[in-house]
Amino acid sequence: VAALAARRAGRTVALLRRAPGATALSSGAISVAPDPGALPGEPLASCHAPLEAAARLAARRPDHPYAIAGTARLGEALAFACGELGAVLAPHGDRRRFLATLHGTAVDVAACQRANVAGDLLSVRGLLAVAGFRGHAGFDAPLVAAGLGRYAPRGGPETRPIELALPAGTDPLARPHELAQALDAPGGAEALGAGLRAALPAGAGAALLPPVLGLDPAARAAERVAAAAGLPVAETLSDVPSVPGIRLWRAIEARLAEAG
């Protein structure tokens, strides 16, 4: 992102790397700063926005990088990154998004991938259906739903687990990237969306799936699943191996090549 910023400023840039780095291992989210005054059990919406929290953190900790570098242009930096990588990253908002993990906890983030947006616990209207694949051990939908249900008193949605058939051509031992490739393929996302529509409980306002909604940003797997299901869909954040991380890495590589 620094290279892209220098390029936009008119500089000639050469990017040297010893290794790919950790981008492909990322969860899919971008964090900025925790709310230093947040207390357990408080409403999720009461947490200070990321930029305000960063300023408060800098004021409390003069040795913190935010205090040394300053936070005045942090919003501009987030907007730049999300704009340059808009094929994958959603525009950052004025408040925190609260996104589900594979373990049924919620993480507050400043920015996230487009495939995460509809899973923000404060934006779901109605029941959140947590969908797992039948016979696949990589995602425990009842556990995730039970964990997220604990956020309902704090402003999160009610949750319910549901079960879907595995994408065609995959099996119970399929790895995350194999499931993602099956959804990128023509008809894969549409078939999953149709199965999701049939399994949705009454009152569902959004569906949460494992972090496998496509490897190739151009395939727009999440959008195709949502169109076939007839409601917003999202994926949880990921641990490694990370499909969202690979998706972000591919978007960065494509944007760097496009920028020269």
Characterization of the model:
The protein is of the alpha/beta class. It is 35% helix and 13% strand. It is built from 9 helices and 8 strands. The chain has helices spanning 2-8, 50-60, 65-69, 74-84, 141-149, 176-184, 188-199, 221-229, 243-259, and strands spanning 29-30, 97-100, 106-109, 111-112, 127-133, 159-164, 204-209, 233-235. The radius of gyration is 19 Å and the shape is globular. The chain starts with a helix and ends with a helix.
Tally the helices.
9
Encode the helix/strand succession as letters. Answer: HEHHHEEEEHEHHEHEH
Unreliable stretches covering 5 or more consecutive residues? none
What's the main sheet like? Answer: 4 strands, parallel
Gyration radius over CA:
19 Å
Q: How would you describe the oligomerization state of the chains in this entry?
A: single chain
Number of strands: 8
What is the approximate shape?
Answer: globular
Structural class: alpha/beta
Major beta sheet, strand line-up? 6-5-7-8
Mean pLDDT: 94
Q: Could you tell me how far the N terminus lies from the C terminus, measured between alpha carbons in angstroms?
A: 13 Å
Q: What portion of residues belong to β-strands? A: 5-15%
How much helix is in the residues?
Answer: 25-40%
